[in-house]
Amino acid sequence: MSSNTSPLQLIDSFGRMHNNLRISVTDRCNIRCFYCMPAENVEFMPREHLLSFEEIARVVRVGTTLGIDRLRLTGGEPLVRKDLHKLVSMLVNIPGIIDVGLTTNGILLAEQAQQLRDAGLTRLNISLDALDPEVFRRVTRRDGYEQVLLGIEAARAAGFNPIKLNAVSVRGMTEEQIVPFGQLARETDTVVRFIEFMPLDADAQWQRDKVLFAQEIIDRLESEFGPLRPIPSDHVNAPAQDFEFADGIGRIGLIASVSQPFCGSCNRFRVTADGKLRNCLFSHEETDIKSLLRGSGTDQEMAEAMLTCIAAKKEGHEINTARFIQPDRPMYSIGG
């Protein structure tokens, strides 16, 4: 790909190296979380527009020549994609890939957890915004709370450890869930990660005053359980700041995307289910690689497309500025 002795790498104009690719396998989902999707009448992309498992694997193989070594499968809800474990197996066997994770809402996890583990899935994050079935339904606008709990237990039985729960925090809706989640973290090996509500909702109703900020969450947990102490991360690019309770029992994480953006250390980019590269969750530009995959595009052309995409990455998402414009694509269409 290059006459240079050193390999090309996915480095943007701010010196950030990208080794983490998030892969959306579908835009379909079996719930309708208000911060992600419309409640009804969602128009999903035709299935033939989705990248095949073989096409995804080719993207990853090209990416490994540029330094990609970590993957995360997302959706929509990735477990609605048939035979997802087969894709996991394909990806973990690509030379250079050292970590494959999955983010799921957990509703279909009970029946798939062992398959995924056996296929080589490394890490598992389960999205669960409430430990109360009524609040769960307010957020998701669907039933399914009990299925998620069964999925968590199946994941634990399959050997996933730790179990990580992602909880989006929304003012006026989930404040009363903070302490129960803290208690869960203290009573089990579950790591709860609170995520600030981001402007990626399909109805474009996000407002800053609806964000339940990370510091408020810390304050509420400390008032109930005592001091939290930060845990140094093994990965400088990790989006979450992890904490443990002062007595050493229980761990939580904060992803402060709005109040404390981590753009300066971002090492991620995305490929959407329909084959578009995005260098930022909040990007307004996309790079089409499906046309290369389904045309006569070479691996070198695909690599050049990735390099060009990353080179154009902006300094940050600008949520906290007057310049911010919410992306046209909502979260479910981009990939979480």
Structure description:
The chain has a single domain (20-334), classed as TIM Barrel, CATH 3.20.20. Helix 1 packs across helix 9 (299-311). The model is unreliable at 1-6 (pLDDT under 50). It is built from ten helices and twelve strands. The chain has a twelve-stranded mixed β-sheet with strand order 7-8-9-6-5-4-3-2-1-10-11-12. Strand 8 (241-245) and strand 9 (251-255) form a beta hairpin. The longest helix has 14 residues, at 145-158. It has helices spanning 53-64, 84-92, 113-119, 133-140, 145-158, 178-187, 214-225, 290-294, 299-311, 331-334, and strands spanning 20-24, 70-74, 99-104, 123-127, 164-169, 191-196, 228-231, 241-245, 251-255, 268-271, 276-278, 287-288. The two termini are 31 Å apart. It is an alpha/beta fold. 28% of the residues lie in helices and 17% in strands.
Offer a quick outline of the entry:
With 336 residues, this protein is α/β, with parallel strands linked by helices.
Would you spell out the secondary-structure blueprint of this structure?
Elements: E1 20-24, H1 53-64, E2 70-74, H2 84-92, E3 99-104, H3 113-119, E4 123-127, H4 133-140, H5 145-158, E5 164-169, H6 178-187, E6 191-196, H7 214-225, E7 228-231, E8 241-245, E9 251-255, E10 268-271, E11 276-278, E12 287-288, H8 290-294, H9 299-311, H10 331-334
Parallel strand pairs: 1-2, 1-10, 2-3, 3-4, 4-5, 5-6, 6-9
Antiparallel strand pairs: 7-8, 8-9, 10-11, 11-12
Helix pairs in contact: 1-2, 1-9, 2-3
